[in-house]
Design goal:
By secondary structure, this protein is of the alpha+beta class. Among the domains are: 30-61; 65-146, Beta Barrel (OB fold (Dihydrolipoamide Acetyltransferase, E2P)). Helix content is 28%, strand content 25%. The chain is built from 4 helices and 7 strands, in the order αβααββββββα. A 5-stranded mixed beta barrel has the order 2-4-5-7-6. The model is unreliable at 159-178 (pLDDT under 50).
């Protein structure tokens, strides 16, 4: 028996030819469908964002119409809900749950019927913003917002002295030291 030295007298078999894996086949149809879906999704989302921005800006720029503007645009506004601003005229009448009064702005008077209870600050001579719609030539309101001004303190400084801190003047300015 002969000792083996690790070398074989038999000829070596050639190394098997290794075939690299086939490149991943991306179906063109599937890729185009994915891109189309992405484009459609982008357009839909972009359109929704643009719509929301437009609505937000248009609502912010036109908070209310003055009485004269609302009368001029009555046919265009129709029965759509909007806000109207004016000063309450004398002659407010409470009939059951309804309040009848008129507002005016820039020489135009608008008759109003309100279905909600007005606040305690509501009275003739006060500027108000009403939310509602046209009902013929009468504005049918369901919300009265009384406009507040900072001129009360300036017009009646003695009324608020007891409620202000000692270091503040009735106008809201820090008191000057003598």
């Amino acid at each position: 028996m002969a000792l083996s030295t690790g070398e074989s007298s038999e000829p070596e078999a050639p190394a098997p030819f290794v075939v690299p894996p086939a490149p991943r086949v991306v179906h063109r149809r599937r890729l185009l469908a994915t891109r189309r879906r992405q484009a459609v999704a982008f357009i839909v989302i972009g359109g929704a964002v643009a719509f929301l921005i437009f609505q937000g800006l248009s609502n912010a720029t036109e908070y209310f119409l003055t009485a004269d503007q609302a009368v001029a645009q009555r046919s265009h506004l129709g029965t759509r809900q909007f806000r109207i601003e004016g000063t309450v005229e004398p002659g407010v009448r409470q009939v059951g749950h309804l309040t009848d009064f008129s507002i005016y702005a820039n020489g135009v008077t608008v008759p109003v019927t309100d279905s909600a209870d007005p606040s305690q600050l509501f009275k003739p001579g006060i500027p108000v913003v009403l939310e509602g719609h046209w009902s013929g030539t009468v504005f049918s309101s369901d919300l009265i917002m009384v406009k507040h001004t900072a001129s009360y303190t300036e017009a009646h400084p003695d009324r608020l002295k007891s409620q202000l801190p000692a270091t503040t003047t009735p106008g809201g300015q820090p008191a000057s030291k003598p």
